[in-house]
Amino acid sequence: MATINPKFGKNLKKYGGVNFNACYNCGNCTAVCSLATQDVSFPRELVRMSVVGLEDEIKTSLKPWECYYCGECSTHCPQDANPGELMMSLRRWLTAKYDWTGLSGLFYKYLPAFLTALVLVFAGVLFFANSVNWELERMLHYGHLFEMVAIATVFVVIFIPNLLRMWYFTVIKTGTKAPLKNYFTALGDLFVHMFTQKRAKDCEDNHFRWLEHLILVIAYLSLLFTTVFLNWFGTENLFVIILGYLESAFIFIITVDFVKDRIQKKKALSKKSQPSDWFFVIWLLLMGLTAFCVRLFIDLNILETNKWMYLFHLMVLAQWALLIVPFGKWTHFLYRSFAMYFAKLKTLSTTK
Amino acid sequence: MEKRIGVYICHCGGNISDYVDVEKVRQSVEGDDNIVLAETTMFACSDANQKDMVEDIKNHKLDGVIVASCSPKLHLVTFRNVTERANLNKYTYVHANIREQSSWAHSDNKEGATEKAIHLVKSAIAKARHTEALEPTKVKAEKAVAVIGAGIAGLKAAISLSNKETHVFLIEKEAAVGGWVAKWRDLSMSDETGEALIKRLYEDLKKRDNVTIFTNSEVVSNAGSIGNITLKVKRKDEEFDITVGSILVATGFEPYKPDEGEFGFSTVPNVITLPEFKQLIDHEKDTLTYNGKKVRNVAYIYCVGSRQPEGGNTYCSRYCCTATIHAANEARKKFKDIQNFHFTRGVRSYGKQELLYAESLQGGDIYLQSYEDHLPTVFVRNNKPVVRINDILTGGKELEVEVDLVVLVTGMTPRSDNSVGTMFKLPKGRDKFFNEIHMKLRPVETVIDGVTIAGACQGPKTIIETVNSALSAATKSYTNVSKGMLETDPQIAEIDAKACTGCEDCLPLCPFDAISMKKDGEKPVAVINGTLCKGCGMCTPVCPTDAIDLIAFSNVEIMGMIDALI
Ligand SMILES: Cc1cc2nc3c(=O)[nH]c(=O)nc-3n(C[C@H](O)[C@H](O)[C@H](O)COP(=O)(O)OP(=O)(O)OC[C@H]3O[C@@H](n4cnc5c(N)ncnc54)[C@H](O)[C@@H]3O)c2cc1C
Ligand code: SF4
Ligand code: SF4
Ligand code: SF4
Ligand code: SF4
């Protein structure tokens, strides 16, 4: 027994759900979705749960993560109920639910809060630059250190507790009885999905996008590795230098294409961009661009200008690492992979 | 004078002649008594053959014609017309069906088929020997129509009849005209209110000289038949007669009254019906309150008194999905913070009315759905009604909601007062509404000649459908009186007063009350009202003295046919 709760749907609109109330349950969306199966049926079911406000059911569901937003369902919906966008808004809502700090929810719902956070981080970067007397050498040194500390902190303080919460909601609360062995057996799925997003390939007519996405993920992760562990900005090693250039160039080119899609609004999935979507692609684009320029300026020995270039890069980086990664769209990448992991775990195990 | 009969036997392009030896049939009747001409033809219905027949009838001075061909349903009228073109009375034509009844039925047995065809043609000849020229009976038709019930159906019908220069008597039981529509303010799919719509029609009617409106009036008895019907009208304490040629019944419907306890009706607080809700939202201003409390959450339970299981009202009331969605939309727009919950059995907002449904969904209304065997339940909690359902759109999950008001979407039922139906002997359907002759082809006529039906007395209808039927019933009633004269079919029963012993055995058998007793001098005899008799033949076999005969199917004709067949 559950209570019908229209407030849930109203709240979901703040996460980007549009017009899903118009759904008259024809089921076309589920029929055209190439990822939905007999056992894992969506998006109509999720549209319905959102309309009647079955919050608990949605909180414990992995289905929103099983959608890779090809947009086919929205294209075919006779009521313009945007089921694809609804799935997207549920993912945003879920990240807010998983996040113990509550900041994700705040940032999704109130743009001013997020803008304030961006300004605060920017001020922090200026403060730091001032404390090192605006010297490029020292900025580079501490900037590098900051990257490592930030990654570790975000992981320990935000991601691990949030993933545990996700696990608690979707595995424990749904009464899954999983022996430890299954956690290991399913692990393969976690990594395959994390690095290949292979389900996205099953989305109809989506192969090129999937490939772009795959290259982006690899470029992004390896650039991270190149700057943090191979110290790209400090190295003399020609191979590492060229590698870094390539990675940042790839990031730049692909994100430009994504931004272009969102501006043109031709595909269903890029029609309804939320601020969080814009921040994600633009900051990623800026990351690739500024990293490229910083290294280029070093190689061309334009050091005076590079001071400002690096400061800009550092600002983008700090905002990215402290806001967008832990509380923004970046987390979808993580939760999605874990959702596939938990889903596998559940198929291997029994439910009470 | 000896009968001169011509017989045509058709090949039907092979449909008949492939199995029936048509030439043999021809030879078997050629030369029989009264047969002047016997021919075969490839297609009897072809223009060429029809022309030949006209020539033959004239040249051979035929006074009886037989075509042995397909079913009379197809071509009886065709060949009657041929005889008329040759100046021969059409009732002298006799049809024999040797296709459906012979060649097609016995395609496995050619000899048998031929044998049977011969018998069929011979029996047709036996009948043709006795056929007589008949003329349609003409009766005077009073150029006036009585419209009973002045709802929107009656009002529109009256205007339409008045335009056709027919006198209209509009008889309304209540003090005011307009029926239910006069009680509704906002209407679906219309910018005009119900009150305004009725007012406009009423003002128009009042101006017309050829319309007499009787309010507070009812018809108490009737006499006569199509063309000349006398109605006794009772208005308060006075009674008077009017005479009309046709009657249009538009007595409308009554909203279903839920039983005590049906979805909490009169057992759970704040459970009302749709008509009550409509009046409520019409009259409340700014805030919607009921019993002094502000209303925010409203639950609508659909199909109350409609689409019930076998034994109840199994029909759909048609108007109510739309009317409810419309009322819910109006409530949401008029008052703040209204949240609507619709507990449906599947929404039927057909046609353009779908737009209202879309508006409702976009406005945030929530729809739930159940099957007939798992209807929602209503109970009390914290002094408020709670509605619970196994929602089939959410995988049958049990859902509930606490609301401030429950609206039972009551359907349409026939008028509980059936005096008009009984008086005119109007047949009813299984749904207990008045029945038309044919749902699709004769949708406003009844089996009672001269009586048409319109609007919701015939079954659930929206205003659009009501007005459509009112206009067509007006036209049908008008055709009864338009010429001031009516032709009725001469193929009816007649009673030989000399042979009639006045036993009255036939009286109760006539389904149309066409037989009555009359004094023939001293002797009481049965007589038949020619405009009421339909020639069904029910009365003929019971008469112990064979006094009743059916014109064109007389005892001699039928006996002759039987003799030829066996
Ligand atoms: C709550 C509700 C809301 C509705 N909303 C809409 C809407 O928004 N849009 C829409 O298209 N339709 C709507 N309808 C349907 C609409 O009311 C009907 O289609 C319409 O009333 C049918 O008209 P009628 O003339 O056939 O019958 P009625 O309106 O029932 O009129 C019949 C008349 O005959 C009179 N009468 C009955 N018996 C006798 C007798 N023995 N002698 C003399 N007079 C007699 C009655 O007093 C009455 O005046 C609604 C119905 C309901 C119940
Ligand atoms: S296609 Fe649209 S209307 Fe149909 S079930 Fe899906 S969301 Fe609802
Ligand atoms: S966006 Fe694509 S994957 Fe997601 S629910 Fe719709 S059709 Fe399925
Ligand atoms: S119109 Fe709708 S509410 Fe009325 S009986 Fe039919 S299905 Fe039920
Ligand atoms: S033929 Fe039929 S309708 Fe005519 S009087 Fe006899 S029973 Fe009545």
What does the model show?
The complex is a heterodimer of chains A (352) and B (566). Chain A has 352 residues and is mainly α. Chain A is 73% helix and 2% strand. Chain A has a two-stranded antiparallel ribbon with strand order 2-3. The two termini of chain A are 18 Å apart. Chain B is α/β, with parallel strands linked by helices and 566 residues long. Chain B is 27% helix and 27% strand. Chains A and B meet through strand 1, helix 1 and helix 3 of A and helix 10, strand 19 and strand 22 of B. Flavin-adenine dinucleotide (FAD) binds next to helix 6, strand 13, helix 8, helix 9 and helix 11 of chain B. The site of one iron/sulfur cluster has 16 residues of chain A, from helix 6 and helix 7.
Can you lay out the helices and strands and say which pair or pack?
The complex is a heterodimer of chains A (352) and B (566).
Chain A: E1 2-3, H1 6-12, H2 28-32, H3 44-52, H4 55-59, H5 63-66, H6 72-76, H7 83-98, H8 103-109, H9 111-131, H10 136-172, E2 176-177, H11 180-185, H12 187-196, H13 198-202, H14 207-228, H15 238-264, H16 275-300, H17 303-327, H18 330-348, E3 350-351
Antiparallel strand pairs in A: 2-3
Chain B: E1 5-10, H1 22-29, E2 35-41, H2 47-59, E3 64-69, H3 72-85, E4 93-97, H4 99-103, H5 110-128, E5 137-140, E6 144-148, H6 152-163, E7 167-171, H7 194-206, E8 211-214, E9 217-225, E10 228-235, E11 238-244, E12 246-249, E13 253-255, E14 271-273, H8 274-283, E15 289-290, E16 293-294, E17 297-304, H9 320-334, E18 339-344, H10 354-362, E19 366-369, E20 377-381, E21 384-391, E22 397-402, E23 405-410, E24 412-414, H11 419-424, E25 451-453, H12 463-481, E26 485-488, E27 493-495, E28 515-520, E29 523-528, E30 548-550, H13 555-565
Parallel strand pairs in B: 1-2, 1-3, 3-4, 6-7, 6-12, 7-8, 12-25, 14-23, 17-18, 17-23, 18-19
Antiparallel strand pairs in B: 5-26, 9-10, 10-11, 13-24, 15-16, 20-21, 21-22, 27-30, 28-29
Helix pairs in contact in B: 1-5, 2-3, 5-13, 6-7, 6-12, 8-9, 9-10
Bound molecules: flavin-adenine dinucleotide and iron/sulfur cluster (SF4) (4 copies).
